[in-house]
Amino acid sequence: MTEMTTSSPESRSSETRNSLIGRPIGRVDGPLKVTGRATYAYEHAVNEAAYGYILGAAIAKGRIVEIDSAEAERVPGVLHVMTYRNAPAQPEFGPAVTPTVPEVFTRARPVLNSSRVRFYDEPVALVVAETFEAARAAAGLIRVRYEEEGGVFDLPARLADAYAPGRTNAGFETDSATGDFDGAFAAASVKVDATYRTPYEHHNPMEPHATLAVWSGDEVTIYTSAQTLANFQAGLASTLGIPRERVRIVSPFIGGGFGAKLIVHADTVLAALAARVLRRPVKVALTRQQMFANAGHRAEMVQQVRLGAGRDGRLTSIGHDVWSATSGFEEFCEQTAVFTRSLYAAPNRLTRHRLVPVDLNRGEWMRSPGEAPGMLAFECAMDELAERLDLDPIELRIRNEPTEDPERGVPFSTRNLVACMQEGARRFGWERRNPTPRRIREGRRLIGYGMAAAIRPNYIGAAAAKVAIDATGRVTAHLDMTDIGTGTYTILSQIAAESLGVPIAAIKIELGDSRFPRTAGSGGSWGASSAGSALHHACSALKERIMEAARSDDRSPLRGADAAEPIFVGGEVSVGNRTVSLADLIGRIAPDGIEATGSVAAGRNTESYRTYSQHSYGAHFAEVAVDSDTGEIRMRRMLSVIGAGRILNAKTARSQILGGMTWGIGAALMEETVLDPRYGHFVNHDLAEYHVPVNGDVMEMEVVFLEEYDDKANPLGAKGLGELGVCGSGAAIANAVYNATGLRVREFPITLDKLLPGLPASAI
Amino acid sequence: MTETDYRITRRAVLEGGVATCLFLASGLPVGAQDAVATMTGEPAMTPMSRIPMTFRINATEHALELDPRTTLLDALRNHLGLTGSKKGCDHGQCGACTVLVNGRRINSCLSLAAQHEGDEITTIEGLADGDRLHPVQAAFVAQDGFQCGYCTPGQICSAVGMLEEIRAGWPSHASADVVSEPAPTEAEIRERMSGNICRCAAYPNIVAAIRDAAEEV
Amino acid sequence: MQPFTYERAGNVQAAAAAVATRPEAKFISGGTNLLDLMKLEIERPTHLVDISRLPLDRIEETPEGGLRIGAQVRNSDLAADPRVRSRYPMLSQALLAGASGQIRNKASTAGNLLQRTRCSYFYNRNMPCNKREPGSGCAALEGFNRMHAVLGASEACIAVHPSDMAVAMTALDAQVETTLPDGKARTIAIGDLHRLPDSTPHVETALGHGEMITAVTLPPSPPGRQVYRKVRDRASYAFALVSVAAVVEKSGDRIRGARLAIGGVAPKPWRTREAEYVLVGAADSGSAFSEAAESALAGAVGRGGNDFKIPLAKRAIRQTLAVAVEGA
User: Fold this and answer.
1) Against a cut of 0.90, is the pTM above it?
2) Does residue A723 carry a catalytic annotation?
3) CA dist., res. A662 & res. B150, Å (int)
């Protein structure tokens, strides 16, 4: 039976005691989602929408020599066939590296603008028809002749061709070096020098990328599935060559993103182009198969981790070298070794990122870019080191707990990694782990325990919010923020209700429209903190405006109230001994309502970010069972203990962590997109062949939140946790597999074929 | 450019020229008796022609004329405005399109609409009783059995069908043996719900929700 | 999906005739594989004859004490049938190990037998595939072939048959009944239904065009304990890497009777008669199981990515036999 333990996050300040914030309230959008009334991109109903279907290239590199769409155009119901020959003009794609990081998100991403084929399944035509069936069939009738060029795809064989990029994703330094790594590592008494390989992976949100484009004059409304509306607005405007103001993005519900919906993709561009040409609305969705080439991936990587320690278990040297594949036409360097700069203490340190160009579409930000693949390798290496030192893996980590950020030299804001590990060990029954592998058996099964640490930077993005209260006391907030399943609608309702002292039912949160005040959207685990802080400020400003009017307006029952701090609670405002209902007050002083705005600046521009090292932390524990005959691995039990600042909603936060832990199962045991180097295509490009965990793969899961409040992070005291669950959880499973079997597989995912050669002969 | 008004419509609109929809008072199919019913000889349709079909969806009769290639899922989503059923993979590999046909859960993406002539179809839109959620729906909200919500209608329809299968005594791969009567244990629910992928991975909450609902249904 | 005409067949004879008279016509029942392939234009029928409502949905006792399973019995109904569960538990187990609850509710018995391979290159029209386009080559031979066959394959094709149900039926000596377009009926041993690829991998079964499966007959349940074991990459909803259908009858500490079929390793459900000979009369010991496993995989050829299937199949066979004798 699953034990669900979620500590109720008691706040440390009196202000937040009995707060609505933190409470595990059910999602306010829940009833819409369970009744099928939440409307996703493809589902917005407009009159006369036509259906688009994309045809992708059959080669990975080369040029279209001839494209014959005559037969397709004759299909009854077909309205238009768009190819590079007749597509509206778009800007060139541009250089592989944008001058600044933000331009990655806003650059033009032209589609069908050249005879050039840059990657397998790149769109070569769009058919638009009266019905989906006609469009799909007509796409199959387009004849394309290609001149194929040899592409390059292999990463491991081409490490020598690697280059050092100018920066990593999110603008981190490519390399870091402290002390003398080479000397210290050479001199270390105990060493690990291990090389790991992580495969191509795909986000596979359940909702395929889809767009409905509707033009009205020279303005276009894009109903799509977007995590960050501002990026979509800017990116599409750049691609169409029109001002941003003429692009409106609408995305009230998003069927999962995980980083695959941060920039415009072919569905958005083509729907917009075709709708303009046809002068009628057009919808285009990627097929699940098309998503593998056209909607981002995590690149294949090779990672070398070198750890040197004294016999006392103290690290003297930490080295983390990463070689990653990248698209040749658009660079993407996951910040895979960046977390290593902050995780453990050691005087001598070296982290480096190198890239090998391949003929693929660009990689994208897949849930916890950097930490997800990086910790999979690094936290396994720590397990290897613990065994060589004959130390408990938790004890090893405790001995190397830094007192300040080891490379930045600034203090941590809050850092409860040790507490997470210790609390986890107690709850998980870590003492039952036998440090010698392959010692616990249950019948034919080998049982193993593993753990790993989790770290993930806390970001805050620039965000603004508008909040209004009407004469009935109802509050409406507007932000261009999105809820990709993270619980944003609910958390923002809680923040506004708490701040204004009104019930949740009086709050209406409107998101997902680029006409609303701009936020950083959903990504980088910053959504709740950024949008939540902006809304918090907006509510504070609203209260001030209410009080200004209440104190001065002739019609106000609070007119002339003293300067005492007003208390907003229970739908009432009290000043001193005078109390009035909020609705009554607004009705008197502002029958048309009152509104206010609030905002936060991007974290890196703030003093607190420069002077404190801000991360969320956790510790993951896993128990696996391995069939000693067949090598089948099944996760049996997982626990994650999380220290991520103040928890805004214990229920949705827990769900976020559960999801991340399950992604850890996928990364450790099953997820891999196979690239065929002969053809340059992803072979297993559907959900039957690309395995993500199914319900049967997920057994007992427990999440515990440590009580925490990070006053350096933001006014809410919260830190990001949407990605924390996947950071290190795969390594905990891999370490459990090692503990069960004595087999260290350094090539992920750990499928049974990799265990078989090392398993004992069948014990029958 | 003509300034046609393509404003979003509140309710899904039946697409003129593509499908016609009749809401019938009686349960009898209209205009379909001779067209698709039993045929033993020449096909009546040429390619691209539409064929009439009728089915009962969420207790309402629907008569449509559709391209024979139209799947049940696309008929619901593109022609009937019933967009609660989701397209996640269109190949029976994710379960987001799950609906109940004559009480049984199926993948509506792997089924031609024409094959469902006369069938009783229940989609996510038909489970609640007015404003009162079906117990499985209510349990999904209470247990946070979803995040992004896209797989959710399929999960819920699948769960409703699955509980009926357990009640009917059907065994599963998780059953200790295939002879005994199964019970809605966590292991049984996990296995039986494995045809519904949730990439947000709300699985533990889905299982908890279904366990709660199983006691109520 | 290219256009097609659609008709619903009124009876078996008419259905067979309707397909026989059109070279590009196909039967459709559950559609769980055919529509999947049609959407990708790997199948391009111009006419579909819907046989899902033909009255072939009953499971009946045979005079010999076996069961006659109508071709249109759904996989879930077959798995849940009390007679199948008690007398042919291996068949229930195999069905329940396959696909998902939703797919089992649609997929028919005949359709399950006739489902096509899941080879990724067969499923991608941009890739060479002798099964899809005879003469174009086999991309899997030197490609990603982790899921592919180690037995019964050829240089033209190394695809596997993905069915679980068929593996159990093969161990149970099922017979497949068909109706020919001229109205005649014939019976095909399940072992003869699927053809090995040799140089014609596009010819997958012994059935002629328009020949329709009407039933699968199971002889009386063999004595002994039946076990179906499926090894796969995730806990559920995945095709077999290897599967084993075993029936073991014991007499004292000796094995009196044995049947063994394996799946996921060959272009058809793979009956291992040699291994059965090894087992019959042997002591129910690990060494007999090992010998049987070696015999079952004799002649197996790995192609790189699927090399592991050879030891995996041996291990799975040994384990399954051990489990079977525990309860036999």
Assistant:
1) yes
2) yes
3) 18
